[in-house]
Specification:
The chain is an all-alpha fold. The protein has a domain at 28-86: Serine Threonine Protein Phosphatase 5, Tetratricopeptide repeat, CATH 1.25.40.20. Helix content is 61%, strand content 0%. The chain contains 14 helices and no strands. It has helices at residues 3-19, 28-39, 42-50, 65-71, 75-82, 90-99, 102-111, 115-118, 120-129, 132-140, 156-162, 166-174, 189-195, 201-213. The radius of gyration is 23 Å and the shape is elongated. It starts with a helix and ends in a 5-residue tail after the last helix.
């Protein structure tokens, strides 16, 4: 191998390495914080934070203690972490919208840098599972009632209708949801009501009538 070719190969290797994001090495205490948060040990989490452990330390997947506690519905741990002003990213809002009670979720939203944008996908997921109070919290934080799901292109009212989340549908109607929107396949809001497998025939008929009265068209 010529020296010139060696130099080229070394340069290419250095370029490739520079493009790979470095994963921060966690200290033993930071590892302990993440472990205790996952396991729901609120007192141990509090003790570590009191010692000055970084509340925003992240594992190799980019998850901090807050996300891990939310994932496992460890409300007591989340309460402790919130006292230390953790970073509330889009992932934390998304998972919190579905897994956190309204009191905790409202505190998560208050700490988020831009909940109107970062909360959109959580808003759509919360509508799908019928977390009506959390849907309302995100609307109050500025999330658009007609936000569109990143994967299926549906709006929140379509998501809620599909799963027969009647209370959520009523909230979205009251907040001015577009009842004549269509998904990427051309399905109307009414078609989601009439095609929902989670409703009885009577419920489908009543919901379709409710939507028509609110302005929905075929």
């Amino acid at each position: 191998m010529t020296q010139q070719r060696q130099r080229i190969m070394f340069a290419m290797a250095a370029l490739l390495l520079s493009a790979v994001p470095a994963v921060a090495q966690l200290s033993r205490q930071e590892q302990s914080l993440l472990l205790e948060a996952r396991n729901g040990r609120a007192e141990r989490v509090a003790a570590l934070l009191e010692q000055g452990v970084n509340v925003n330390a992240r594992d190799s997947r980019g998850e901090n203690a807050l996300i891990q506690a939310i994932n496992r519905r460890h409300s007591a741990v989340v309460e402790v972490l919130l006292e230390y002003n953790p970073e509330v990213c889009e992932t934390a809002l998304h998972r919190g919208a579905v897994r956190s009670d309204p009191d905790i979720f409202s505190r998560l939203v208050a700490l988020a840098e831009n909940p109107a944008v970062e909360g959109q996908q959580g808003f759509l997921h919360a509508a799908f599972v019928g977390r009506t109070e959390n849907v309302a919290i995100l609307l109050d934080a500025g999330v658009s009632v007609d936000s569109i799901h990143a994967t299926n292109g549906r709006t929140a009212v379509m998501q809620a209708l599909d799963q027969a989340r009647i209370d959520t549908v009523e909230l979205l109607i009251a907040r001015g949801a577009d009842l004549n929107a269509r998904d990427p396949n051309g399905r109307s809001v009414l078609s989601f009501a009439l095609g929902s497998e989670e409703m009885t025939d009577q419920q489908r008929s009543a919901m379709a009538q409710r939507l028509r009265e609110a302005g929905a068209r075929e």
